[in-house]
Specification:
This protein is an all-alpha fold. The protein contains 13 helices and four strands.
């Protein structure tokens, strides 16, 4: 089983390496940014059992901070991304400390309320430029050497960040800490009776998820040169939920697959205007009815059943 997993990930890694030579780098970068965002969200809902309706606050605010750091402060791209990610971590610590005190739908509503507070801060804050957003964010030079104005070079940086984030999530899930998170997801009272500080574990999972989501948002703003209110809106929080459920909640690769499908539909069906939302909704309904565990989840279930 382990050898098959290694082969699968080796093939996927090789695909990332050759992808810019067979596909459009800008589109691929968008897929990778949202794939990392979805994987970060899945760490919270799929492996801890906490449904957040406000994950866009980490993704979007990190994008704003990273863009501002690069454009106004003149930081190099790696420092700008780090600044955005650290801000997302701080927000995750504060909001997580408030949210994990509640469970179920109350937790989801608290995260949504906090995310809306962050949204209105972004509307009013001078450095975000309100509805115009931060535009023309320079990519700069990585470590002052590698010029990221080249799309292929930028793609490999985004791919490296995705691999780092994905590997971190994989390691978290397969660590003793990850096993405790799964026990909290399956039976929180039993985990509590075994002596685990459940709230502390949930808070740490929330912070890790928010930090990686912030890393995805910060990377996106540098790669695409723009940060807007769309990145921090409640619709973005809804999209990441859709991506995760579509691909397979609680699976490793499912959220990335779901993100790739949604981004592909948005990109290639853009000419249809508002019909894109309808098509995405119908696709989600069909997948929920046909693949109750998500696309990847259903495939894993059927392969395991046959095995």
């Amino acid at each position: 089983m382990m050898s098959k997993t290694r082969i699968l990930y080796s093939v996927l890694f090789a695909a990332l390496v050759v992808a810019p030579f067979v596909g459009y780098p800008i589109f691929l970068m968008k897929v990778l940014c949202f794939a990392l965002f979805a994987c970060a969200f899945n760490l919270l809902i799929g492996f801890t059992g906490l449904l957040s309706f406000g994950h866009a606050m980490f993704f979007g605010f990190a994008a704003y901070v990273s863009g501002h750091a690069a454009k106004v402060w003149g930081l190099t791209p790696e420092l700008a991304i780090l600044a955005g990610t650290l801000c997302a971590t701080v927000i995750a610590v504060v909001t997580g400390w408030l949210a994990v005190r509640r469970q179920g739908i109350y937790f989801a509503m608290v995260t949504l309320a906090l995310a809306q507070m962050i949204y209105f801060i972004c509307v009013q804050a001078p450095f975000t430029y309100a509805e115009d957003g931060i535009q023309s964010i320079p990519r700069g030079k990585l470590f002052g050497v590698i010029d990221l104005a080249n799309d292929t070079a930028m793609y490999y940086v985004v791919a490296a960040i995705f691999v780092f984030g994905f590997a971190l999530i994989y390691r978290i899930i397969h660590s003793p800490f990850g096993q405790v998170l799964k026990s909290v997801r399956e039976n929180e009272p039993r985990a509590l009776s075994l002596g685990y500080n459940v709230d502390r574990y949930k808070l740490l999972a929330f912070v890790l998820s928010g930090t990686i989501a912030g890393l995805a948002g910060a990377t996106k703003s540098i790669a695409f040169g723009i940060a807007t209110l769309t990145d921090v809106s409640w619709q973005m929080s809804g999209e990441v939920v859709l991506m995760t459920l579509l691909g397979g909640m609680g699976t490793i690769l499912g959220p990335a697959v779901g993100a790739a499908i949604i981004v592909t539909m948005q990109n290639y069906l853009a000419d249809l205007g508002s019909m894109v939302s309808i098509i995405m909704g119908l696709t989600f309904v069909v997948c929920v009815l046909a693949f109750r565990r998500g696309i990847v989840g259903e495939i894993e279930f059927r392969l395991g059943k046959k095995g």
